Amino acid sequence: MINVFKPHMGEEEINAVADVIRRGWIGLGPKTAEFEKQFAEYIGAPQVVALNSATAALDLALKLLEIKNGDEVIVPTITFVSTAHAVAYNLAYPIFVDVDKRTRNIDLKDVERKITCRTKAIIPVHYGGRPVELDDLRQVAGDIHIIEDAAHACGAIYKGKHIGSHGNISCFSFHAVKNLAMGDGGALALNNQNMSDRAKRLRWLGIDKGTWDRTEVDKSYWWEYLVDEIGLKCHLNDISAAIGLVQLKKLDDMNNRRREIKNLYNKGLSDIERITLPPDDDDDHQSSWHIYSISCDLRDELSIYLQGKEISTGVHYKPIHMYKCYGNITTLPVAEWMFKRLLSLPMYPDLSNKDVEYVVDCIHQFYKKS
Q1: Which CATH code of 3.40.640.10, 3.20.20.60, 3.30.780.10, 3.30.70.660 fits the domain covering 11-248?
Q2: In terms of C-beta density within 10 A (0-12 exposed, 13-18 middle, 19 or more buried), how is residue 367 classed?
Q3: Average model confidence (pLDDT) for the chain?
Q4: What spatial distance separates the first Cα and last Cα of the chain, rounded to whole Å?
């Protein structure tokens, strides 16, 4: 079976984990601090706070901005549910907006229509790894906070700079199938030292010093700490961070391989009229190509056909406003139309050229019969 996603890992990651276990410090400690430093340098962000998931990063971002009961946060409807769930965790209202038919990113015109006096933040999602038009979004947003959901965009570049370095709060995912995979993990990229310090407290139950930090304090009461506000327990650990440090060294090569696979798909599928390919890279947008998602006729039938050929596919995503927990109280026509057509094809660094050609051939065979 050809998977939709698959992490690219080997002996280096195994040895890194073994080294952490042998050293005996496997929780929040020196490897996590090292990963934060190196990831910040890679994306060009002043501060990075490592967490156990991108969901936690989104939740903490909203807390750092004092989003509260009754506030509104604008969210694109085509994204993973955690983007909206994090808003609900903070007792605010997710206001769902439509997406651009070409890029699948947030529709800026719909954002502008739905801004009210209660709008406190906007969460754009870099869908599939393609950067959102951040400059245009800032003009629409004005003084409203922007929290980038960069779960797909590790290594993506917008106008010559990595996503995470454009001055907003950015939330990254290191889930098992993401471009930089740790098994699970996430990070906040910030440009504010006070926010960074507070995020480090909030990720560790509100405690002002982590256990590793307290071991370096030279005083009698080294075990003493302060808890001035109630936080969560959502920090990264050194086992995951050790994997992440190895993955970070490979990230550019892995993303380059994803672009090679994208090019093979584009070349092989461009002559099928019943398929619309995802937008390609250009001077301002260099995607991380986490997802290769086509828009196609007979989506369900094609997915079943490919499954019979031992090719897994996915749908990213069902619009969140259509889920019962959010009441299905709005209509977003582009997203609802796209949902019936979206299909994610296999995309991961270890996917061989031969496998890509097989996927392409099977898709051609399906449409010749249909």
Answers
A1: 3.40.640.10
A2: middle
A3: 96
A4: 24
With residue 370 as reference, give the H or E element that holds it: none
Q: Are 78 and 104 in contact (CB under 8 A)?
A: yes
| Euclidean distance between CA atoms 259 and 253, whole angstroms | 10
Give per-residue pLDDT as tens, 66-108: 999 999 999 999 999 999 999 999 999 999 999 999 999 999 9
Q: Which residue type sits at 336?
A: E
Domain boundaries defined on the chain: 11-248, 251-369
Alpha carbon 100 to chain centroid, angstroms: 18
Strand order in the sheet with 275-276: 275-276, 292-296, 342-345
The fold for domain 251-369 equals: Aspartate Aminotransferase, domain 1 (3.90.1150)
Give the mean model confidence (pLDDT) for residues 123-132. 98
The torsion defined by the Cα of 281, 284, 286 and 292, in degrees rounded to 10, comes to -50
Distance CA 249, CA 230 (A): 36
pLDDT tens-digit map of 318-355: 999 999 999 878 899 999 999 999 999 999 999 999 99
Q: Which residues contact 78 (CB under 8 A, 6 or more apart)?
A: 99, 104, 125, 127, 316, 317, 319, 320, 335, 338, 339
Q: Which of 31, 63, 120, 178 is catalytic?
A: 178
When mean pLDDT is compared across 113-122, 214-223, 330-339, 356-365, the lowest value belongs to 214-223
Q: Are 208 and 3 a contacting pair, CB within 8 Å? A: no
In angstroms, the Cα distances linking 115 to 96, 143, 328 are 11, 12, 20
| Closest listed residue to residue 168, CA positions, set 125, 117, 104 | 125
Length of the chain, in residues: 370
pTM > 0.85? yes
Cα separation, 167 vs 189, whole angstroms: 9
Alpha carbon distance 359, 355 (integer Å): 6
Active site residue 178: yes
Closest Cα partner for 279 from 128, 107, 178? 128
